[in-house]
Amino acid sequence: MVQLMEYSLFTTFFCYLLSTIAFVTAVTGKGSRVGKEVHTRIWGRRGIVLAMIGVALHVVFIVVRVMIGGHFTSNMFEFIAFLCFTIVASFIVIFFLYRTVTLGAFVMPLSVIMLGYASVFPREVEPLIPALQSYWLHIHVTTVALGEGALAVGFVAGLVYLIRWVGDNRMSRTATWLEVIMAVILMVVGFVLTSFIFGAMDYQASFRHSVEGKAVVQEYHMPAIAGPYEGKTVQADSFLGMKEPLFAIPSWMEGKEAARKLNSVIWSVLSGLLLYTVLRLTIRKRIYEMLYPLVKHLNLETVDEISYRAIAIGYPIFTLGGLVFAMIWAHEAWGRFWGNDPKEIWALVTWLFYSAYLHFRLSKGWHGLKSSWMAVGGFVVILINTIFVNLVIAGLHSYA
Amino acid sequence: MENTKCECGHNNPVGTVLCEHCGKPLDERGDRPDQPLDMRYEGKARRSQTKKASLVDRVWNFFSSVKVAIWLILITLVLSALGTVFPQKQFIPSNRPEVYYAQEYGFWGDLYYKLGLYDVYESPVYIALLASIGISLVICSLDRVLPLYKALKNQQVKKSPVFIARQRVTRTETVSSEEKEALLDRLAEQLSRKYYNIRRDGDSILAEKGRFSRWGPYINHIGLILFLFGVLLRHSIPGWYLDETVFVREGETKKLPGLNYYIENKKASAELYDSEEIPMGSKNGQNVVKKYETQAVLYEKNKDTGELKEVKKGSIIVNHPMKYDDVELFQSDFSTETRAIVLNVRDQKKDRIVDTFKVNLFDPKEEYRLKEGLKVTVLDYFPDFALENKRLENGKKVSIPITKSEYPNRPAFIFKVNAPGLKKPEKSWMISGTNLDDVNKENRFAMELKTLKTVNVSGLMVRVDKSLPIIFLGGIISMIGLVMGFFWHHRRVWVRWEEGTLYIGAHTNKNWFGLRRELEDASKKAEYPLSFSPEQR
């Protein structure tokens, strides 16, 4: 069973990767033999079929995991992997509404990154703590993820819009900011890559320090640039001759894992910048300029509508899962439907953000460029809530 | 006074953008003929645009602005987010926030405290923001929904060709007067097959579907208003809201604070997962709790006789609260408390145990009379023992035993032991978790800890929240509104033939792509294929 679970996840990853390649081929290839249009259609179909096979295998993975552990959305690995699933599923829905092959060339790489990011976290099936033992766990988390999946597709469409728009307005501030977004995405890629590289090297280091008077040991799986506050090295593999942390984190950084998390962030930023520099030096263009040929044939108005449509689908689902179901469950488990827990607050922030988006769009006529920026911003808020709040701000929802 | 009479002869109220009757744009200033028409609220004048005199009107105008609403949303968003930078007052392990934030987080923590962000969700500013959002929801909705309702109800089939030709989706075709009748019939037929409601007026068609989705946002707003109203009620009506915690030991019966109920804790337990259920190297360690449970009986007190009558019996588990009437009891805390210690008194000279006695840590006796005339007196008792350093007046430093609380977390005793045959009574020290053999080595009688008597304590959250039905009803209504508004769309198609020209225009509140495809399909089936792609405009 465990074998089947591992294989299904691996093949899912592989399908998403192949689907990415198919979609990129569909948009970039000239199709000199059959003509551009036929080429795009054929490869687009291959891409969507692969994505659908991937989603089907992803379902197999989820089913097997539920059979083994009884649940599939209780920790970071499970949640991010499921979010990846909902992104691809939302994309498939949007694809059949709008038949846009180009969107696939952007959504599928995102799903590959997401699944890679998910597998950086511990993958064991953990038993559920009492607070999570409820059927609401599945109802609440799946609805939230479905909503966020659709909102993520809205983000990707917004990004496509920006790349397309910037192609016609190269000297704008939007161009600069778009490049910053590209660099940040590379940082996430950098994090996934460094995690895998150091994981493959089996890098180990541990440091002893105290949290609220108790001695704890932090295990590092990446070389320590930032060490714990007043920490002592227990054991550390040498990395480029470096054995001790370069600096210690300040004392106000909370939580027993704060140093390790900050260290991961530093590695992500550094590796992302390295990737960015290498890419820039190889292609001798900005990243968005590299991507522009993929989108230059698109109609701006249609891309804008796809982004809005995805958000219009995602917003009610997110409201249902992230606020309504969340409140019902919070009342059952904790005796109050609202408790100002950071996760709850950020769900509210996400909801307020998209509410502002909708009002700007419907009443203030924020279409196109501004709307696309807000779609990007909304996804940043979602990422803050799924990742930053869990890893940095401690609270009731810190399940990873 | 502006001239608001349209060419078609209809008199419109001041502030009208599109003629109520024929749809022709009225306000020529700021209107760009090359752009599609602004179809918001059907171009109707809203109350906020027509009345601008009294204070009431000014307040109305302020809250009716979507711009103001967006600002309110954004400010609430920013404040909410800022509130998560550092833990809120309720989450800090200290009841002195003025010291805590500065100490833990330095300058920024101090600033955080001084700006009031440490308790932002309870702050007057935040509550005022939520209240303003509530007012804005009411006024914005009323200001728009009434004119919109009137406009959609009194729609004219015959619209000005200018109105039709300036829709975002539009085509103008030359059609001879011989062809037009049959073509109009076919178009009406095809649109009807696509579930449009069709109205004909001479050479004009109005096809419409999904109008009810226009009410979605307003229904959503009603739900939100109801939600906020429920939250307001729970804090303003006495007895509607109760939030207390009660700690009950096994075997104990306690009054629920503020209520006429009593709870008895029959048995409290915590169950751990077996070690094979936990994966190797789990970050949670090897002790993961599987279940917290309190077997409880709820009693109601008879006000006259004072008797307790059992009203509910059952177990309280996390995620499965006990509910009776309006009261809900939640398992929220579990701990094990040492109630008593059992001590052996050993005669070290004869090396045998003389007697065994139990000391209740919450209420120790002054004196314990044991076998063979042995008498143990409690000279001093520190339930939560600690040593405090003090400097005497002569400059010497000494350590003084103190107790940090009245809870027996680390009980310490000074006993006096007297027995026949002892020249003078012995002093015996006992501090839990500390080996004091050195201190007591002169003594003939030694105190040995035999066992600890522990008891499980359940922390139960006691809740009454009578506004919950209103709050959740608000949530449900809000969801219905959202689904109506986002998963359906309002589409209208205007067709008009006039003097050899066929005008087709269409409007939707969302999903233009779908509308275009639908029109292309309908026109194709009406044997008059037209393209409505955006480039064709």
UniProtKB/TrEMBL annotation, chain A:
Intracellular or extracellular location(s): Membrane
BP terms from Gene Ontology: cytochrome complex assembly
Cited Pfam families: Cytochrom_C_asm
Sorted UniProt keywords: Cytochrome c-type biogenesis, Membrane, Transmembrane, Transmembrane helix
Membrane-topology descriptor: Multi-pass membrane protein
Sequence ranges assigned to domain Cytochrome c assembly protein in this UniProt record: 74-200, 269-397
CC per GO annotation: plasma membrane
TM segment ranges: 6-27, 48-68, 80-98, 105-123, 135-163, 175-198, 265-283, 306-330, 345-362, 374-396
Coiled coil: none
Family matches, as InterPro entries: Cyt_c_assembly (IPR002541), Cyt_c_biogenesis_CcsA (IPR017562), Cyt_c_biogenesis_CcsA/CcmC (IPR045062)
Molecular functions per Gene Ontology: heme binding
PANTHER family documented for this protein: CYTOCHROME B_B6 PROTEIN-RELATED (PTHR30071:SF1), HEME EXPORTER PROTEIN C (PTHR30071)
NCBIfam families found in the cross-reference section: cytochr_II_ccsB (TIGR03144)
Protein name stated in the entry: Cytochrome c-type biogenesis protein CcsB
Lineage: Bacteria, Bacillati, Bacillota, Bacilli, Bacillales
Automatic annotation (TrEMBL), chain B:
Chain segments annotated as transmembrane: 68-86, 125-146, 218-237, 468-488
Protein transport as UniProt keyword: no
Pfam families per the UniProt record, alphabetical: ResB (PF05140)
The organism's place on the tree of life at top rank: Bacteria
Main location: membrane
Keyword Transmembrane annotated: yes
GO CC aspect terms: membrane
UniProt xrefs under InterPro entries: Cyt_c_bgen_Ccs1/CcsB/ResB, ResB-like_domain
Gene Ontology BP annotations: cytochrome complex assembly
Topology of the protein relative to the lipid bilayer: Multi-pass membrane protein
Domain called ResB-like: residue spans: 66-520
Keywords: Cytochrome c-type biogenesis, Membrane, Transmembrane, Transmembrane helix
Annotated localization: Membrane
Protein name, UniProt field: Cytochrome c biogenesis protein
Organism: Melghirimyces algeriensis
